[in-house]
Amino acid sequence: MSQTELRAVPLGDSAVMIVLGKERSTELLNRVHATAATLAVKKLPDVHDIVPAYLGVAVFYDSLHASYGEMSAKLLEVCERGSDSTDASANLREHEIPVTYDGPDLADVSAACGLSPEEVVARHSGRRYSVDLLGFVPGFGYLSELDPSLRLPRLAQPRPRVSAGSVAIAGAQTAVYPLDTPGGWHIIGRTDTQMFDPERDPPSLLRAGDTVRFVPVQ
Amino acid sequence: MDGFALRALNAIVGNALGSPALEWALGGGTLTFQGDCIMAIGGARARATLGGQTIPPFTTCYARAGEQLIVEQLTAGRFLYIAFSGGIDVPEILGSRSTYLPGHFGGYSGRLIAHDDSLLLGPRPASTPSEGFACPPELLPRYESSAVRITRGPHADLFDDVAWRTLTETEFTVSTASDRTGYKLKGQLVTHAAGDLPSDPGCQGAIQVPGDGTPIVLMADAPTVGGYPKIAVVAEADLPIFAQRSPGAAVRFQLVTIEQSQRALRHRSSDLYTIGATGAASA
To answer: pTM of the entire structure?
Structure first.
C-alpha cells in the first residue's frame, strides 16, 4: 500500500484522525493495529488516548498545549517512520471464552440458516476470531469473521435490554455484550466471563488484535 | 455535559477544576447540609434557595449545618451543577470520579443519587474563598445564544453543497430524543449518499448523520466508535452552550476553521484561569 494514503483530519478540537485507507480489509486492519501500537509505544507528550478503528486511528490530545497543526504533523511523521518496524503482535493474546449455547435466538438462527442448533454451535465455536476493534460500550469487541453460513442481518426490532455476558452474532461478526445494554444482534449463548471490569487493569479483557475462541460448555 | 459550569463552579469554591460535583437535571429537590461549607450553583438557570434566601448563579454561598438548599425548578437550560468546597468524596475509577450510568460504575456507586443518600465532602481546600464571590458574567459562555460554532468533521467531503448549506444556513431545534448519549436535531434533512461507513472513532460534539438525514450530536456518554458519517464537530468552546439547549430550543451552526475553534477553546480556558485567580484573591 502506498504511503500517500496516510493523511490526518481533525476530529474536533482535541483529536486527530490518522486515516490509513478507504476500504475495510484485513490487511488495512493489521496496519491500523500496527500504527496504534507504534503510537502507544512512542508515548508522545500531550497525547492521552489512542482509538483504533477500521480505517484509521484517532489520537486524542491536550489541545491547550498542542495545536492541531503541530500535533498532526508530529503524528504523521511518527506513522511514516514507524509503522513497518513495530512488531504489533508482541502484546497480543489469545482468549478462550466458555459459552453455554442456550440463547433466546438460537432456534431462530438455526431455522434462518437451515442448520440444526448443534451445527450452529459447531460452526460458531469451530473457528478462531480476531478482535477487529473495541467500541459501542466499554469492553465490547467486534470479532470477525463468522462462518458464511451463519450471517444474518440484525434483528428488525432491537431488544431494549440484552444481559451482560450474552454471546451474539450479526452480519460477519460476533461479540459478547459486556454490560446490560440495548442490542440488535442475535443472541445464541451466554458466558460468565467478565468482559469488562472497571477495577481490573486493563479493565477490558479484549484488546484490538487479540484472538478469541468460544468453547461450548454443557 | 456542561464542563465549563462544572469547572467554573469548582474554581470559585476553591477546588481543583475537575473535582466531583453534582449534575442536576429535570425537576426540583432538596439537599440538607450536615456540616458547614462554601458552595455554588450554576449552568442551567434555576430558582433555588439556601436557608430560605434566593441564591444567584456562579456565586459562592456559605451553607451552615442544618440549612437546606432547595432547588425549586430549572427555568432555562437543562443541567444545573452544584459544587462544594472540598468536592464530593467518591473513588477514582479509570482516571475519573464521574458516574457512568450505562456501565453502573463510577461516581456515587454507579447510579443516580436517590432520596436519603448521604454525600461526604473531601478535605476543605487550603484557601477557602469568601462568601458572595461572583464569577464575572463576561467570562461565562453566552448560554442564551443559539449560535454554536462547528469545524469540518472527518467525513465532511462526503456531503455536498446542499447538505452543507442546510447545516450552516438553516435553524435546527433540539429534539425530545436527547440525553447524555446524544441530541437528535429537528429541522431540514441533511441528505447524503454516503451510506453507513466502517465503524470510525467519534468524540463529544461530533455531528453524525444517519441515512435518514436527521443529525445527531454525540454527547458525554456516546459510544467511542460508530458507523454514521460525521459531517462536523461542535467547537469545544461552545459545547456548554449546546449541552444546555433544552428540547425545542433553537440551534444555528457557524462553520469555523480548526485554528479558530482551538483559539476559542484556549480563550475559555484562560477565562477559567481568571475566574479561579480572582476567586482566590477574594479569599
So the answer is: 0.91
